[in-house]
Amino acid sequence: MQTFQKTSRTEYFDFLRGIAVIMVVAIHTFGQAYNYNNVSFPAVFLRQIFNCAVPLFCVSSAFFLIKKEWTVETLRKRILRVYIPLIVFSLPYFLYDVISDQNLLKSLFKLFFGGYSVYYFVALIVQFYILLPLFKRFKLFRNIIVMGFISLLWVFIYTYFIQFKHPLPLLLYGGPILCFIVYFSLGASMQLDNKKSSVNICLVLFGIGVSLCASCAESYFIMEKTNSLSGSGLKPSAVLFSIFICSLLYSDFCSGKYLSNKITKFFSDLGRYSYGIYLLHMYCIQLINKFLKNYFIGGGLLYWIIYTLIVLLISYAVLYIVKGLMPKFSRICIGV
Fold this sequence. Notes:
75% of the residues lie in helices and 0% in strands. It is globular and about 50 Å long. The longest helix is centred in the first third of the chain and has 32 residues, at 2-33. The chain has 336 residues and is mainly alpha-helical.
């Protein structure tokens, strides 16, 4: 009985990563299905929920790594596990820049620091690995209010003082750990300070509802100001929503209610492939845009769902095949 519970809990957190990677793919197909002129409220509403995708991965990293013993060697191995796949998947972008006579120093910077595509998350996670001893040793780094204030301030300044005048590359505004530090703090505190068992469910559910409504309202405010979909993504209200939703999903209340079946196991399997899917899926989007987009008509919710499923399944299938044929290469070079 104890073995079953342990397996189910492990499977549950893989399940969360599987859901999170689906949301990541949906975020990046959102702009293929909608533009400022045709976006609907249901789409905006769903897009706000999906804003918790990257925070879920941040919480997961802290949740599972905070209790481990770290040495320089284990840190090196952990960084290489995420860094080598980053280089492998960034190389085509880099080679394209070289062929296109782009600035070589800028291209090298993007290659080595996660500046291509949506790979800022690797830079983010490496920063957390390096700072992990601080999260373990000092309670200040596990103080959700303090770290939440830092993340909110960072996002607020970018959203309302920088974005409109001087939009930054994703690596420069989303890559610094200050942007997402509250989620690493949340994951660390739920493990070390046992916050996962003391979550006030009613309060959290109320916070989810209020912050989600605020996120929708803020999205429309920014979209109307910019005449674009940019308001649908990162913003202060989305930070609040993500804090509440992550607190709920990583609590004992939710993990204890998880039921393992064929459907949830499939999502858990996606979770185990999540890093590879994250690295590969933008290539799949480009492939669909080039070869398959003419077979789809218009946009809308159904279009968005179909587009997302195609990208997700192609990414998963490619990784599954490569892992089956070359397991060592797959583990070292493509992150699965």
